[in-house]
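To assess whether ligand presence alters the predicted conformation, the chain was also submitted together with oxa(dethia)-CoA. Input:
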Amino acid sequence: MSFSVLGTGMYVPPRVVTNEDISKLVDTNDAWIMQRVGVKQRHISTNETAADMGCKAAIAALENSGVKKEEIDLILTASVSGESISPSVSCMIQNKLGVNCMTMDINAACSAFVFMLETAAGFFARGKVKKILAIGTERLSRIVDWEDRGTCVIFGDGAGAVVLEAGDNYMDAVFHVKGGDNVIDIPQPIGKSPFYEKEQKKPFIHMKGQDTFKFAVNAICHDTKQLLKQNNLTFDDIKYIVPHQANQRIIDFASVMLKVPKEKFYVNIDRFGNTSSASIPIALDEMNRQGMLQKGDLLLLPAFGGGLASAACLLRW
Ligand code: UT7
């Protein structure tokens, strides 16, 4: 017993920031960003928190599923950009939604949505819950260094959510973690202890772009091939690959290396940028509402990012 997806939802803040807008902040331009990253615009929060956005995505997913908020037994939230470590983002969403259920945050950076689905599957397998709300929500604009042109052009804010109920449509997943802070690092603010000796890094996203790029392409190729092999499937059996929207070029490279046509990959990074743990549920919601997904379709969801962590799962719609 695992779960099936009953409904999807998303929310992005109204403020659209274009490449032209960013070129007024740092030395960059639309042509460079489009060619190296594939982002045209991103939505940026002016005042909404990760919990505010997550709550709005959750309400949309509840409406889409026809499930009442009181029926939810567990809220799982993936985020690296909540306003506080405690209360967790899940606790804040629970409070805003006005429900009374178990809550928990999952941190696996950009791969967290898949880690969260696996966690959800565990709760269903133990018969502990009947319905779960799983939310990826990020206000990355609060942890981006807006003076670093190598990172600030990539990311965006937003939230995606799914409502899950016990079922058999979450089929399998693979996970890989190579822990370390020398490729992608988001340090917490250090505080003011008089006993500290070392200067700490600024509490922003620090990323070695090319190392991240190589890791991401390898991860997406390795994880998807391993997952298909252990399920006796091929890419021909897959209707859509819905990857973490990190960079258009990462997806293009993966398409060539895996010999899978580009059309099989769902891509929306041009409109939203990289929204980390929110990117896959946002993509699923768009596909769902556009009527792209038919009952029985097989989806492959690969994700990769900070940790370094990567994962991929097989989901039957
Ligand atoms: O969820 C996972 C998150 N991260 C990612 O997916 C990021 C993966 N990495 C990447 O997408 C790419 O490495 C970047 C987009 C971050 C950078 O692209 P790149 O092709 O690896 O560029 P680079 O860092 O090698 O820099 C090439 C040049 C440099 O100039 P010089 O030294 O050759 O004169 C950079 O200073 O491009 C310059 N550059 C920029 N130019 C204009 C770096 N950022 C920018 C920019 N606009 N925004």
